[in-house]
């Protein structure tokens, strides 16, 4: 297989959710360029509209405009679809509103833990009716008090929900997390002139008289979507791929660090800034990979890239170990067990031992049926494995890629020959 060409990944999913939400809270018109137009981001737009936000169309190549309108009581349940980011960050926003709202989601989202967010929000004074550790649940927002919180999980969704509650409730919030998770919310707050500070890995937000000002922003390409294209280039036999306009925030690019350690040839060029976020073009070339150990401290910087890194590890020399990846059990699917089981299904030795994932590299062509469990990142990771010479991989479905990367199969086909 030869890799060639230039490709632009779709807009960053994490940043797209955040700019939509902050624009809905802004005191004036906002213009958002380069938003991801996937199902997850549409879930955030839909939920915000149900709350009265005035958001124009979210469509590829179109600037989305958000005009000022106060959030009000929704007439129906807020359906967050498959999107954990929508559910958790909206809980933070709703905690500071003086009305009640009920959130729900699809079968996958309803299984995902919400207490990690509802517990600290209750400490801030939100009243929450929940039936277990998940959706549906009803939140009664209102007068909040400040919070000093040590999160047991390194989760950007927990951190962001609490910062958004501090913002909408007008109270100070201080958060410590075990390892630094993605910091897009902090960067956006700082970019918008809100009082956010980090000192010794402790993040604090101090409310001020200034509310969210109207803003214009351009969202860079999603590095987590780019990771699948980079991986396809690394597994190719010859050629070179240029991936343009990729976010390279260091809290997201752990996969590039690990790939380089495995012997991959990936370079960042043309480094620039976009709305407080570092952005670059990435050049990726084919390489022979060797196994590595991915430490617990690295995991938050590549948490969504474990499936594709595990696929790459299955083509590397030796055994790769991912330490402390238990969080993968509560993603869109049980990614820890499903990555291991699907690798085994295509002839690779792989196993979850406790919270660690072990993958033994092999150069035999991978063949077999893969159960994606409707998880977009499993579908994309195993589709990339299906591009190696002699592979015969049948995916149980392909439509889940619409969650984060609607044109994935088209782009993958275009860069390989
Ligand atoms: C996200 C944070 C991560 C990540 C998810 C998006 C975000 O989840 O897995 O895809 O936008 O904040 P956690 O914060 O739960 O680790």
Relevant terms:
417 residues, alpha/beta, four-stranded mixed beta sheet, 13 helices, 31% helix, globular, binds shikimate-3-phosphate
What does this structure look like?
It is built from 13 helices and 24 strands. It has helices spanning 13-25, 39-50, 84-95, 107-110, 115-123, 156-169, 184-191, 223-235, 254-261, 306-313, 335-345, 376-385, 408-415, and strands at 2-3, 6-7, 30-33, 54-55, 64-67, 78-79, 100-104, 127-130, 137-140, 147-150, 173-176, 196-199, 202-205, 216-218, 238-239, 241-247, 265-274, 277-285, 293-294, 319-322, 350-353, 356-360, 367-370, 392-395. Strand 12 (196-199) and strand 13 (202-205) form a beta hairpin. The model has no long low-confidence stretch (mean pLDDT 98). The site of shikimate-3-phosphate (S3P) has 10 residues, from helix 6.
């Amino acid at each position: 297989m030869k890799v060639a060409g230039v490709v632009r990944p779709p807009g960053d999913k994490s940043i797209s959710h955040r700019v939509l939400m902050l624009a809905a809270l802004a005191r004036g018109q906002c213009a958002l360029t380069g938003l991801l137009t996937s199902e997850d981001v549409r879930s955030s737009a839909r939920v915000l509209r149900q709350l009265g936000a005035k958001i124009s169309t979210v469509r590829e190549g179109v600037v989305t405009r958000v005009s000022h309108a106060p959030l009000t009581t929704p007439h129906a349940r807020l359906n967050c679809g498959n999107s954990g980011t929508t559910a958790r960050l909206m809980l933070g926003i709703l905690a500071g509103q003086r009305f009640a709202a009920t959130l729900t989601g699809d079968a996958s989202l309803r299984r995902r833990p919400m207490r990690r967010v509802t517990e600290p929000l209750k400490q801030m004074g939100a009243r929450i009716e929940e039936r277990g550790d998940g959706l549906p649940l009803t939140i009664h927002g209102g007068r909040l008090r400040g919070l000093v919180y040590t999160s047991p999980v390194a989760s950007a969704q927990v951190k962001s929900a609490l910062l958004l509650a501090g913002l909408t409730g007008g109270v100070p919030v201080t958060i410590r997390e075990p390892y630094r998770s993605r910091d897009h919310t902090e960067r956006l707050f700082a970019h918008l002139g809100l009082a956010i500070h980090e000192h010794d890995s402790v993040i604090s937000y101090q409310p001020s008289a200034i509310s969210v000002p109207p803003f214009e922003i351009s969202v860079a390409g999603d590095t987590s979507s780019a990771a699948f294209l980079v991986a396809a280039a690394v597994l190719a036999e010859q050629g070179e791929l240029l991936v343009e306009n990729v976010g390279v925030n260091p809290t997201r690019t752990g996969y590039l660090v690990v790939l380089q350690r495995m012997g991959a040839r990936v370079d960042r060029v043309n480094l620039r800034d976009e709305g407080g976020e570092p952005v670059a073009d990435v050049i990726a070339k084919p390489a022979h990979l060797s196994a590595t150990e991915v430490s617990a401290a690295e995991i938050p910087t590549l948490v969504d890239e474990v499936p594709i890194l595990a696929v790459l590890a299955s083509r590397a020399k030796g055994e790769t170990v991912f330490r402390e990846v238990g969080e993968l059990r509560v993603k869109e699917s049980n990614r820890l067990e499903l990555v291991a089981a699907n690798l085994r299904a295509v002839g690779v030795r792989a196993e979850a031992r406790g919270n660690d994932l072990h993958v033994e590299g092999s150069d035999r062509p991978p063949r077999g049926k893969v159960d994606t469990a409707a998880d977009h990142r499993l579908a994309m990771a195993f589709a990339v494995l299906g591009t190696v010479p002699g592979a015969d991989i049948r995916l149980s479905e392909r439509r889940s890629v619409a969650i984060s990367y609607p044109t994935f199969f088209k782009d993958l086909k275009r860069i390989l020959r």
